Amino acid sequence: MKIAIMIRTVLTCIVLQFCSTIAVAEGQSPVMIPVPGKNYEIGKYEVTQAEWQAVMGYNPSKFRSCGQNCPVEKLSWNDIQEFIDKLNAMTGKKFRLPTGEEWEYACYGGKASTYCGGEDLDALAWSSNNSERKTHPVGQKLPNGYGLYDMAGNVDEWTEECDEGDCTMRILRGGGWDDDPQFSVATFKDRFIISGRNDDHGFRLARTLP
Ligand SMILES: [Ca+2]
Ligand SMILES: [Ca+2]
Asked: What is the CATH number of the domain that holds 170?
């Protein structure tokens, strides 16, 4: 019986080319990596268009032609709160955005570096240097020391951090596909209004470990 369900799922998956959607719909969680020595885990990848679509029922991304495995973008910090509420209801887990401190610690991957995971930005990240002015499927560049992909580049990542106490503005990290390399420096903080949507803004999830 179980095998029959599995075969049907795989077939549906192939037909629809929508595998990560099905994974979320069946109550499974996004791929997370526990951060060594800390009490939280963080998304291995940026949240994808398929994952967003599965939870929210729409896809806000500008770069839909990039495909389901590309990072979701053009969403506000407020939109993400709605996504997280729904995902948590579906999975029974307590996902959230990373704090600024959590994001930066995970970014280094256990080793001090200029960018998240090293010094060679082109090997690690899609930035204005190499993106051809668009997003790319997650996980194509080198991971950092913790096995996290695209911490630098592809899409800028929203965090919980308020902008110097003003929580109508929040901090984004890592730089995006249209940013010059200095925006991808590990310590660099960008900021944006929480209701604003930009086609190089996305996110990854975090969760306090039980
Ligand atoms: Ca990124
Ligand atoms: Ca940006």
From this structure: 3.90.1580.10
